[in-house]
Write a structure and sequence with these properties.
Elements (H helix, E strand, L loop, with lengths): L1 E4 L3 H13 L6 H12 L9 E7 L2 E8 L5 E3 L7 H9 L7 E4 L1 H15 L3 E12 L12 E4 L5 H15 L6 H11 L2 E6 L1 E9 L5 E8 L9 H15 L4 E7 L3 H9 L3 E11 L1
Parallel strand pairs: 4-5, 10-11
Antiparallel strand pairs: 1-2, 2-3, 3-4, 5-12, 6-11, 6-12, 7-8, 8-9, 9-10
Length: 277
């Protein structure tokens, strides 16, 4: 068993893509990051870390980091983690956090804390969902779906700051994100006389795409707007040719989990954040 580092996103995908596709929706995050690296559309710092865990000359897991952000893990053999920790430590003196399936992320945290002498604490637990067919509620909230426009930027930047607070994203830049998403045609609004809710479509994989950034300001909650925009946007993306949609939810928010399950999303895995102190 060994850790194989790759020089760039193309080399990484040449080695790992077939393995990642076997659980495509669950591995959506690394697919999105690799595609972003291929496009050169990012502001990540060096050194970027892209690696595969190799067991008997076959891929059995993937690991990545795009500084200044956390280290990411797919499912991988638990017994490979001490070897992985030693390799990561040759690249980074410190990392802020790790995200991945709970057994792998917790074991990595234990080994990393011993390696570099830091403490760790668990953070947000998320559930990954996949949808292939929308089960639309019989009565959607009034209104309609539309793409966001540049005239919406001030409002959606404000909403983006609210989303970041709710989702505990301290490094999120809502103005830049909203502007980039509007220009890219990936940010949507549910409008009922005026904007009521927003959502985005991003992180495309070979066969799927991620629905995210779903946010309804407190004033407009409990009226079904989140359900309306999530179901309508998911159907739009399926109609556009994607085989499935996927998304992440905060396990501590039972309301959002019920919304997505009600419109046809099926849980396929969990992930956990572990921060280093």
């Amino acid at each position: 068993m060994n850790v194989e580092r790759h020089s760039d996103a193309r080399a990484f995908l040449n080695r790992a893509e077939n393995w990642l596709i076997a659980n495509e929706a669950q591995n959506n995050l690394i697919f999105a990051i690799a595609n972003q690296l291929l496009r050169g559309d990012h502001s990540y710092e060096d050194p970027i870390y892209l690696a595969t865990i190799e067991a008997n000359a076959r891929v059995s897991g993937c690991v990545w980091r795009t500084p200044p952000f956390k280290l990411g893990l797919t499912q991988l053999p638990i017994e490979s983690i001490p070897l992985l920790v030693r390799d990561v430590a040759t690249v980074y003196d410190s990392i802020p956090a790790v995200i991945g399936p709970e057994p792998e992320a917790i074991e990595f945290a234990k080994c990393w804390s011993r390696q570099v002498g830091v403490k760790w604490v668990t953070g947000m637990r998320q559930r990954i969902y996949r949808l292939e067919c929308v089960s639309s509620p019989s009565l959607l909230a009034p209104g309609s779906l539309r793409k966001a426009e540049m005239s919406d930027l001030p409002l959606l930047s404000e909403w983006g700051a609210g989303f970041a607070r709710d989702a505990h994203l301290p490094n999120h830049e809502p103005v830049a994100f909203s502007e980039r998403s509007i220009r890219g045609g990936s940010l949507y609004i549910w409008e009922d006389q005026e904007p009521r809710s927003m959502a985005s479509a991003s992180g495309a994989t070979p066969n799927g795409i991620r629905v995210g950034y779903v946010y309804t300001p407190p004033t407009f909650r409990s009226h079904g707007y989140a359900t309306a925009i999530a179901s309508s946007l998911s159907q739009l993306l399926l109609d556009a040719g994607h085989r499935f949609c996927f998304l992440y939810t905060d396990l501590a928010n039972p309301v959002s989990n019920k919304i997505y399950e009600r419109i046809g999303y099926v849980a396929i895995g969990d992930a956990i954040d572990v921060s280093f102190l």
